Amino acid sequence: MGYLRYCCLLVLAFIPAPVHAHPVTYKGGALIDVMVGHNHSQVDATYSPTPSLGLTAGYMRFRDSSHQITEAWIPRVNALLKRWNLPEAQANIYLWGGAGATNREDAAAQVGTQLDWETRWLYSAAKFDGFIIEGSNDFHFATLRAGVAPYPVEFGQVNTFIILQSDYGSQSTRRWELAPVARFFFSDYLLEVGSTIDGDVMVNGMIHFYL
Amino acid sequence: MAGRMRIAVMVMIGLIASPSSAAAEKLIIEVNGMVCSFCAQGITKKFSSHPSVADVQVSLEKKKVEIATKENTTLSDEEATKLIKDAGYAVVAIERQ
């Protein structure tokens, strides 16, 4: 059964998946990403020493189906495995992993992957995050996203994407939930606001810095 | 004596009148993958921190980055390509004006 579970995790990890934003930024760049959701909240502080590597200090908070809260602090390494810089599009494959501890002092590990493809008009992404926690049920979250920009923008203007997101949480909803999400970004700031059909609100904010 | 004086004066006037510095350059860099202004902020950050760069303009529509250098400075194609790569993008061509 355990073997089957990890096979499923592995398969999910390679579903074409999405993002909250890129987990690796430009060389010398840093970012702070705060995501608050009903069943899963996360704060990441990331520094990129190269354009294909990100070093993250991460804090996560999960709520399972019995409403038990688990918190974890997991430093991790994010790698940009492959980037396609095309004339009208960019596509990326990211992989990350790390190990840390929970608020109950249990060991915790995280592994995840993200695939995304976007143009100035269209955005799609798929993301998988798996958390293995000592003495507890594992968590995994999968997200699929597709979005469209309602108007054309140039550099320096406010970008908007209207996104349809679907999430699956293994220890929370245990089903795919749909959520419309509005994404705005301007300069070094990104904000996403969404809600599931059931009314669970999700907010994600990100800031870029150059160190 | 008067001839030498006249030549010396002409040389001094020439030195004062002629620009002693190289003119600023403009580089127009065609870049692939530049579709998101949030992510492309890295381009302005990388170039703005270079001591030779006076101004950076990014156009997602034209897929181009325009760099104006400061007078007396230069930015080689290799340096410009490295800065674009460090920002996560790919250079297609560099034109100088």
Description:
The complex is a heterodimer of chains A (211) and B (97). With 211 residues, chain A is mainly β. Chain A has one helix at 2-13, and strands at residues 29-36, 40-50, 53-63, 69-85, 90-102, 107-118, 122-133, 139-148, 159-169, 176-186, 189-195, 201-210. Chain A has a twelve-stranded antiparallel barrel with strand order 1-2-3-4-5-6-7-8-9-10-11-12. The longest helix of chain A is centred in the first third of the chain and has 12 residues, at 2-13. In chain B, strand 2 and strand 3 form a beta hairpin. Chain B has a four-stranded antiparallel beta sheet with strand order 2-3-1-4, covered by helices on one side. Chain B is elongated and about 65 Å long. Chain B has 97 residues and is α+β, with helices and mostly antiparallel strands. Helices cover 35% and strands 28% of the residues of chain B. Chain B contains three helices and four strands; from the N terminus they run H-E-H-E-E-H-E. Chains A and B meet through strand 4 of A and helix 2 of B.
